[in-house]
Please model this.
Amino acid sequence: YQPAACSSVKDSVSEFFKKCDNAIPTFSGLATGRPPDVKFIKNARRSIDTNKAIAIASGINDENIQNYFEYADYFLVASSLLQPNTNYFNKEKLLNMVSRIIDYNISQVR
Model:
């Protein structure tokens, strides 16, 4: 995590796109496993051209992913879905997350 060097999210995002036109800005929480503040992600989304994608790469899990559907296009998720002390996915958590994603996508089609 790197704190924004600009005075606001909008300034930070604008500077980012001036330097990296094809990049996808990726946001995270303050540390691994800690979700980003929803208000921060919401403000970032408002500051970015709606044709640009944004991603979240930390703190997303099967219980909170729905809080970010409206604002993020991509989620990089792994550790929150693993079985304790292994590199194997917890099937229940994985299925719960996939179910939430499918339910959200179906609701957007209606």
Notes: DSSP finds three helices and three strands in the chain. The first helix runs from residue 9 to 19. Residues 27 and 56 are 5 Å apart (CA to CA). The beta strands are 26-27, 55-56, 74-75.
